[in-house]
Design goal:
- The complex is a heterodimer.
- Chain A is of the alpha+beta class.
- Chain A contains 24 helices and 21 strands.
- Among the domains of chain A are: 109 residues, Uridine Diphospho-n-acetylenolpyruvylglucosamine Reductase, domain 2 (2-Layer Sandwich), CATH 3.30.43.10; 118 residues, Uridine Diphospho-n-acetylenolpyruvylglucosamine Reductase, domain 3 (2-Layer Sandwich); 119 residues, 2-Layer Sandwich (GMP Synthetase, Chain A, domain 3), CATH 3.30.300.330.
- In chain A, the strands form 5 sheets. A 7-stranded antiparallel sheet of chain A has the order 18-15-17-16-20-21-19, with helices on both faces. A 5-stranded antiparallel sheet of chain A has the order 8-9-13-11-12.
- Chain B is an alpha/beta fold.
- Chain B has 28 helices and 16 strands.
- In chain B, helix 10 links the parallel strand 4 and strand 5.
- In chain B, helix 13 packs across helix 20, helix 17 crosses helix 18 and helix 21 crosses helix 23.
- In chain B, 50% of the residues are buried.
- The chains are: A alpha+beta, B alpha/beta.
- Bound molecules: flavin-adenine dinucleotide.
- The site of flavin-adenine dinucleotide has 35 residues of chain A, from strand 6, helix 8 and strand 13.
- The site of flavin-adenine dinucleotide (FAD) has 35 residues of chain A, from strand 6, helix 8 and strand 13.
């Protein structure tokens, strides 16, 4: 039980406050000294490390190069050419301009999707379908005076109203536009963001940070019931590397930079971060921080939480940042851990210091075939046990292996498949692998040439113990290349009645096989029960290994011909699948972020809450309004009203936090992390209340435990 | 889907049941030898590779769970792990099945011969077989046959072999092991043996549960066991034992398999081989220890006609769907799965409910023969009238009336079509001629002589007690047939009795009494825990539907034409009601301070014998030790009797006040039922 209203705890409170002051001291920016602000001001436009505008991948008007209702670049997509063969257009990717002969048959055989049954998307955005913007005139007026560019063009606004969830893209294809931001602003540096946030607070405007827009957790959706003006804060123009520190191997970067630019620019200086989520072409540094992203090569470089040294975030209360750039600290809970994963609900991440590494001398792909998935998992487990995982190791199940096979392009040396000719014969006939059971692991090694070769040997020796056969570099490379084009494939599917999506989980080792089997089976069963007319594609792969478990990706797609509300069916099945994941000891998400919004039923939300709570208590931090909650965006908007500089504190020991977290009322609240069980207090009450507004514990005996965590920050 | 079959009791009349096919017919027309040697290629679960029994053993022994327990035991006892391992492997050796196709073929041949001499027909619902075949391919399967005879599991395997289905691995009681040769034969036909009690032996439990789970997890074979735990000597379904059900559901709950299919199987015998054997056992003539020689003595049975057997494979039940919303499987992710953990409350109550539902599913698909109705009428008649017997046409009329009633109540009655009722009656009577006597057109139970039981002696040489016991053998044998129909009537009968006992029309009062009776009798009959309201509603629904009562907001009133039904139903429960009362009386009047559980049965039996001989009790059925045990269990459950621990280990402490008032309430003598109901 915890509440500042309870008299008996005043002693504890006093101690807590004291502690709070100490911690706050570490974090607090000197009240009237701006020198702590990043070394580079906006005016430093011409600095050497700045990516020149030609190099910028992401223009302000994104729709000029990217699809407004699909994945990626407008010029790149899968199409069926005149001969009825699948082809990938454009020039950007290795696969570009190539014919993929097997794809059509695979689509037909897997989904029953034929060329005759087409579901083309609405080709162009019909601006009249877009609601007129609700503009907050005063806000706009003052914004103008800051000279920060903004727009209320329908196209700009629609583009920022969504991430890449199936339902979001499906609706766009149908030309259905829901609530969209009323305004888009493009700050170009930290101080721009400060100005915007301040104005938003002042004029009661709701802000939604927008990075690369690759969110798959509905985090960018505008709450339809939001009545205030919604402003999308597009960070894409904050994309400079501000400095590189070669002595400490760190780089200080603006949060809007997208993955491909970051790597490219660092490479020019001989460095890399090694952080490569599959969405790295488009997702941004700030987005990674906000979603706790995970990169493919985390085995060498770590996940985002391992990479981050320093974060600067603008909140309604002011700027949060640590006062040093140290590798580790033991001064209370780490503020970074409540910023990471907050999905834009607490503030705008503007600058980040990341670890960097020299570009590796040597890279080598590889692949291994296993007679079955069980053996493959056993091998990955052993590799993890011996802690010799390569930069990346991924295990595809049989269906995915076949899928990869179907994506093999016509003629190309790097695309020859081991299943061709003699090799196929060798594996299936001589080794007795069942083509309907075998599965493939793809590998990526990185480092010194010699060490890589040694490492490779070690891994292949382990693989051999589990019946694995080396299947060549090409297969490995092709596997990784496909991760970049696979997102494009969904658009092709949607042209032909096929909808699908992936979701992921993390799970202890002893559960991996069970979860894979059960979730796949559940998907199939649910589809049948929900009236899906065609057998679904239900497949998985193990994409990351840890000491204590693994990350598993599920892909699920089906032909929706004959269904009146396919998205609803899809969501119900996905919901069931997630329920199955939880029942089998998996987490709700390894890296995509908490799936939110209407598509999870009450019950799932409850489970989700419980699930995330355990994550949270593990983090041992509870901070005010630290709620990556479904649609806590509006709360963010409210929060923006408070103006006092942030003082972070820790008024009570974590035990109190725990007691609060466990109350059932909170579990039911639907907030994954529960600092507030109920709706936040009304904005008016906050701003007119005692000074610090939002972060101030509400006066009076409010809902007991629920507020104990809210009260973590005390004036 | 499947789950609904178990849970739907809406309208028993609408129940559609499959048709039967006689599998002996083909055996009578073709070579048994060829049949025994024919090609046997059952479909398996998802192409699981069949597993040799030795491989299975080593797989089970290597399981983490066993390692864990071995380590624990060795730590606690100070024995080396090797020693404990050896013990584990010895346990497994003693337990494991050793299925061999050759033995199965031998049985296929021998049983064909035996079955053909014993039975007119063995009828199986083929649709059920098809469903089973489908289920076996999709998920690991658990077969749950009812248990009325030693025959049961041989019969099951015989049927599965006949239909080319995967042979089950069967949990059997250790008592078979007494019969050296037979025990081994059974082992080779797929039985594995469990000690009857292994109380706190953790190692035994671990080995045994891991053995079963290994089979389930890999889907090597259907696992078969008897939910009732033991053969029912009374033909009533026994309250389910949960141990094995817990074990087989575990792999699903822990996510080790996607689903498990449970198939309740109802085996109904027109005449039970062990008929009088059971009756004598219930009366305290000690059960002959299963020995091979005793079995050979049973050869006498071979010369008799045992009518037909009906085997109904029920709707497969998906454990996943019945667990949906009942069990939060997340709970199993917080502790490594190989560490044995007592199931928590929601799991326990889930398994308990499931077990009851499954036993009910068995009951519902039990085929009832005309004789079951005859036995019910004859028993009631025998208890009611002093005049010996009942006229044949009166009997026929009553049976026809009862046929109609039971059909309306949804009984699965097998009444021969197109045969005149009188013929049906007389052929039933002749099949059971050991139990009934017909003289001068009057039918009565064959009470006077002890022909069926034991050697024929001069009647005069019997003491009154012995004579009574001999009569009781016949009554109990007969009762075991009536009991087959109990599940059809028990709920309406409880309401009828409640109306009678509470002698009121007030619905609430009747419900209270019903609730009380249901509670008292929940060791006696299969009454799903927590389903009081449903049961009451179901009972009222049936009573109203057949026009026996009218139910209004406030009242339940017997109609004119309902008198007969209500009288019949009340009479049906009467032996139980009186039996429980007399047990209560015994505890109040005779029970000494030092009464132990062990001595309870002999003492209560002696007491009841006296009461009957003194004319204070009419119902001979009260002599059944089954009834006495159930009554005691109920009293223990209700706290009217307590079992002492410590020094007075095993003694029973009787709360005379409570027992007394329970007796009064049962007899309808206590006006304020509410008080006692509240106390319970
Ligand atoms: C094809 C595909 C592949 C993917 N693969 C991976 C993968 O391998 N690993 C992985 O981890 N994820 C993956 N994702 C998910 C997604 O790319 C990540 O969640 C990514 O981190 C989101 O970054 P973004 O810049 O696109 O953020 P957005 O989608 O723009 O925003 C995501 C959330 O972060 C908030 N946010 C964005 N920028 C800021 C900021 N500067 N300050 C505060 N809040 C901000 C937004 O408000 C929003 O709530 C994938 C997604 C797709 C579509």
């Amino acid at each position: 039980m915890a509440s500042n209203s309870s008299g008996g705890s005043s002693d504890r409170q006093r101690i807590a406050k004291q502690r709070l002051r100490i911690i706050a001291g570490h974090l607090q920016r000197p009240a009237d000294d701006d020198s702590a602000v990043g070394a580079a001001e906006c005016t430093a436009q011409g600095s050497k490390t700045d990516a020149s505008s030609e190099e910028r991948t992401v223009p302000r008007r994104r729709h000029e190069i990217m699809k407004w209702n699909g994945w990626g670049y407008s010029d790149s997509k899968f199409v069926y050419n005149k001969k009825g063969q699948a082809e990938f257009t454009g020039k950007r990717y290795r696969l570009s301009g190539m014919i993929i002969p097997g794809l059509k048959d695979w689509m037909e055989n897997t989904f029953g999707a034929t060329l005759q049954h087409k579901t083309p998307a609405t080709p162009i955005l019909n601006s009249s379908a877009v609601q007129a913007p609700t503009l907050n005139e005063v806000f706009v007026e003052e914004l103008k005076s800051t000279h920060i560019p903004f727009s209320h063009d329908a196209e700009d606004r629609v583009f920022r109203a969504h991430g890449h969830c199936l339902h979001e893209i499906f609706a766009l294809r149908e030309g259905k536009i829901g609530r969209v931001p009323d305004l888009v602003v493009w700050p170009s540096c930290h101080s721009d963001v400060e100005k915007i946030v301040e104005l938003a607070c002042k004029h009661n405007v709701c802000l939604i940070p927008y990075g690369g827009g690759t969110s798959v957790s509905s985090a960018l959706e505008c709450p339809p019931e939001e009545t205030r003006s919604i402003v999308s804060l597009d960070t894409s123009q904050m994309n400079r590397i501000l400095w590189i520190d070669e002595k400490n191997l760190t780089a200080h970067v603006e949060a809007g930079i997208v993955g491909q630019d970051l790597e490219r620019l660092l490479n020019e200086s001989g460095y890399c971060t090694g952080h490569e989520p599959d969405s790295m072409e488009f997702s941004s540094l700030g987005g990674w921080v906000a979603t706790r992203a995970s990169g493919m090569k985390k085995n060498i470089y770590g996940n985002i939480e391992d990479l981050v040294i320093h974060i600067k975030m603008v909140t309604p209360q002011g700027v949060i940042e640590k006062s040093c750039q140290c590798p580790r600290m033991s001064t209370g809970p780490d503020v970074h851990h409540f910023i990471m994963g907050s999905e834009g609900t607490l503030g705008v991440v503007t600058e980040v210091t990341l670890k960097i590494r020299p570009v590796p001398e040597y890279q080598k792909y590889g692949s291994v075939v296993f007679p079955n998935f069980e053996q493959g998992v056993a091998c990955l487990r052993e590799v993890a046990k011996q802690r010799c995982a390569p930069a990346s190791i991924r295990l595809m199940d049989n269906e995915q292996f076949k899928f990869g096979h179907a994506l093999k392009p016509q003629v190309s040396s790097i695309f020859t498949s081991f299943l061709d000719g003699l090799k196929k014969l060798y594996i299936t006939k001589f080794k007795g692998f069942d083509p309907n059971r075998l599965c493939v692991a793809t590998l990526l090694f990185e480092g010194d040439r010699e060490k890589v070769l040694q490492h490779e040997k070690q891994v292949y020796t382990i693989a051999a113990k589990f019946g694995g056969l080396a299947a060549g570099e090409d297969n490995g490379q092709r596997g990784y290349m496909l991760t970049f084009v696979i997102a494009y494939l969904r658009d092709l599917g949607m042209d032909y009645y096929v909808i699908g999506e992936s979701f992921e989980t993390s799970v202890p080792w002893d559960r991996v096989l069970d979860i894979c089997r059960n979730v796949k089976a559940r998907i199939v069963r649910e589809c049948k029960e929900k009236g899906v007319q065609f057998p679904p594609l239900s497949t998985c792969r193990v994409t990351q290994t840890y000491d204590a478990g693994a990350c598993v990706y599920f892909y699920f797609a089906f032909n929706y011909r004959g269904l009146s509300d396919p998205i609803h069916v899809y969501e119900e099945v996905e919901h069931a699948a997630r329920e199955e994941i939880l029942a089998n000891g998996g987490s709700l998400s390894h890296h995509h972020g908490a799936p939110t919004g209407s598509r999870l039923s009450q019950r799932a939300r409850r489970v989700q809450a419980r699930c995330s709570i355990s994550w949270w208590t593990a983090g041992e931090v509870a901070a005010p309004g630290l709620v990556p909650q479904p649609h806590s965006l509006r709360r963010f908007g409210r929060r923006l009203r408070a103006k006092a500089p942030l003082r972070l504190g820790w008024p009570r020991p974590p035990a109190g936090a725990e007691a609060g977290v466990r109350t059932p009322s909170r579990v039911r609240s639907g907030a994954p992390v529960c600092t507030m069980g109920q709706e936040p207090p009304a904005p008016v009450a906050q701003s007119e209340g005692a000074g610090d507004g939002l972060l101030q514990p509400p006066a009076g005996p409010s809902s007991g435990n629920t507020h104990s965590l809210m009260s973590l920050i005390v004036c | 889907m499947a789950s609904k079959a178990v849970y739907s009791h809406r309208d028993p009349l609408l129940k559609k049941r499959d048709d039967f096919e006689d599998i002996l017919e083909e055996r009578r027309n073709s070579s048994d030898l060829r049949y025994a040697l024919r090609c046997y290629t059952p479909v398996l679960y998802r192409g699981a590779t069949p597993c040799k029994s030795s491989a299975l053993k080593s797989m089970a022994l290597q399981a983490d769970q066993i390692h864990y327990v071995i380590k624990q035991v060795s730590k606690e006892t100070g024995r080396t792990t090797e020693e404990v391992e050896e013990e584990a492997s010895a346990i497994l050796e003693e337990m494991a099945h050793h299925l061999q196709l050759s033995t199965v073929r031998f049985f296929a041949f021998a049983l064909s011969k035996i079955f053909k001499t014993l039975f007119k027909s063995i009828c199986v619902n083929e649709e059920g077989i098809q469903r089973l075949q489908q289920a076996i391919q999709e998920h690991p399967v658990v077969l749950l046959p009812s248990h009325r005879s030693y025959m049961d599991f041989l019969l099951m395997s015989y049927i599965l072999y006949t239909y080319d289905l995967a042979l089950p691995v069967i949990a059997a009681g250790m008592d078979f092991m007494g019969m050296k040769f037979v025990g081994e034969m059974l082992r080779m036909s797929g039985a594995f043996f469990l000690r009857r009690s292994f109380g706190g032996d953790r190692l035994y439990w671990a080995v045994f549960s891991e053995y079963v789970k290994t089979i389930i997890r890999n889907g090597f074979a259907p696992v078969e066991f008897f939910l009732e735990g033991t053969r029912s000597r009374t033909s009533k379904s026994l309250t389910p034992k949960l141990g094995l059900l817990n074990i087989v559901m575990d792999p699903f709950l822990k996510g080790e398999v996607f689903d498990i299919t449970v198939v309740p199987v109802s085996i109904s015998y027109e005449r039970i081989l062990e008929e009088t054997l059971y009756a004598r056992e219930l009366l305290g003539v000690p059960k002959p220890k299963e020995s091979t020689s005793a079995l050979f003595k049973a050869r006498k049975v071979l010369s008799e006609d045992y009518g037909s057997i009906h085997v109904y494979f029920g709707q497969p039940v998906s454990v996943r769907s019945i667990a949906e919303g009942r069990v939060d499987r997340c709970q199993f992710s917080l502790v490594p799965r190989h560490i044995p953990k007592r199931p928590n409350e929601d799991v326990q109550s889930f398994v308990n409910d499931a077990a009851y539902r499954l036993v009910r599913a068995q009951e519902e698909n039990m085929v009832l023969k005309p004789w079951v109705l005859l036995a019910s009428v004859l028993l009631q008649n025998q208890a009611a009238v002093q005049e010996p017997g009942i006229a044949l046409d009166e009997l026929t009329e009553k049976v026809l009336w009862l046929r109609h009633l039971s059909q309306q109540y949804g009984a699965f009655l097998h009444w021969p079509d197109h045969t005149p009722p009188s013929e049906v009656v007389s052929s039933s009577l002749s099949l059971h001629r050991g139990l009934v006597r017909i003289s001068e057109g009057r039918v009565q139970l064959a009470l006077a002589q002890g022909t069926q039981a034991g050697p024929v002696e001069q009647p005069s040489s019997f003491t009154p007690e012995e004579e009574l016991l001999n009569q009781a053998v016949v009554v109990l044998s007969c009762a075991s047939y009536r009991n087959q129909a109990l599940h059809v009537f028990v709920r309406p009968a409880l309401v009828a009795t409640a109306m009678h006992t509470s002698s009121s029309n007030n619905k609430q009062e009747i419900f209270n009494t019903f609730n009380f009776l249901r509670n008292i009798f929940s060791n006696e009959f299969i009454l799903c825990p927590g389903a009081t309201v449903q049961d009451f509603e179901e009972a009222c629904y049936l009573l109203v539907k057949t026009g026996a009562v009218q139910v209004t907001q406030q009242e339940v009133v017997v109609t004119e034409r309902g008198q007969r039904t209500v009288a019949f139903l009340t009479a049906m429960l009467e032996p139980f009601l009186q039996g429980y009362q007399v047990v209560c009386r015994f505890l109040c009047q005779e029970a000494a301070e030092t009464l132990t559980e062990k001595h309870f049965i002999p003492l209560v039996r002696k007491f009841i014998l006296k009461q009957i001989l003194a004319g204070r009790l009419r119902h001979v059925e009260a002599l059944s030790s089954d009834l006495q045990k159930n009554a005691l269990a109920a009293l223990l459950r209700l706290g009217a009797v307590r079992k002492m621990n410590g020094e007075e280990q095993g003694t029973l402490k009787v709360s005379k006040v409570m027992v007394n008032s329970l007796e009064d309430t049962l007899g309808g003598k206590l006006p304020s039922l509410k008080a006692i109901v509240a106390r319970l």
